Amino acid sequence: MQDIWGTVTGEYVVIKALDNGVTIIGLTRGKDTKFHHSEKLDEGEIMIAQFTEHTSAIKIRGRVELLTRHGRISSGD
């Protein structure tokens, strides 16, 4: 049986929209990177995203404040 504990405890990021219409796109792992999920956030909305066995990257369009274990990042300044 595959150990799923590592999948469940993957890295989290907190994304806070600073403008309306921020787009968040999840990208897949594997040989071919593809979009697998997208969300739209309006100003002040927060999303908590997780890297998993299926999600290797997150693409963000728009002004956001991003909080990770590596620190706080603001886009579009």
What does this molecule look like?
The protein has 77 residues and is mainly β. It has a single domain (5-74), classed as TRAP-like (Immunoglobulin-like). It contains one helix and seven strands; from the N terminus they run H-E-E-E-E-E-E-E. It has one helix at residues 5-8, and strands at residues 12-17, 22-28, 35-41, 46-50, 55-61, 64-68, 71-74. Strands 4-1-6-7 form a four-stranded antiparallel sheet, with no helix packed on it. The termini are far apart. The model has no long low-confidence stretch (mean pLDDT 84).
Number of domains: 1
Classify the beta-strand content into a percent band.
Answer: over 45%
What pattern of helices and strands is seen along the backbone? HEEEEEEE
Q: In angstroms, what is the radius of gyration?
A: 13 Å
Question: How would you describe the shape?
Answer: globular
Arrangement of strands in the largest sheet: 4-1-6-7
Question: How much is the average pLDDT?
Answer: 84
Unreliable segments (pLDDT under 50, ≥5 consecutive)? none
Q: How many β-strand stretches?
A: 7
Structural class: mainly beta
State the helix count.
1
Give me the CATH fold name. Answer: Immunoglobulin-like
What is the CA–CA distance across the termini? Answer: 47 Å
User: What is the annotated CATH architecture?
Assistant: Sandwich
> Which sheet architecture does the biggest sheet show?
4 strands, antiparallel
Please identify which CATH superfamily we are dealing with: TRAP-like
- Tell me, what is the CATH class? Mainly Beta
Helical coverage, percent range: under 10%
Protein name: Transcription attenuation protein MtrB
InterPro entries: MtrB (IPR000824), Trp_RNA-bd_attenuator-like_dom (IPR016031), Trp_RNA-bd_attenuator_dom (IPR023558)
Keywords: RNA-binding, Transcription, Transcription regulation
GO molecular function: RNA binding
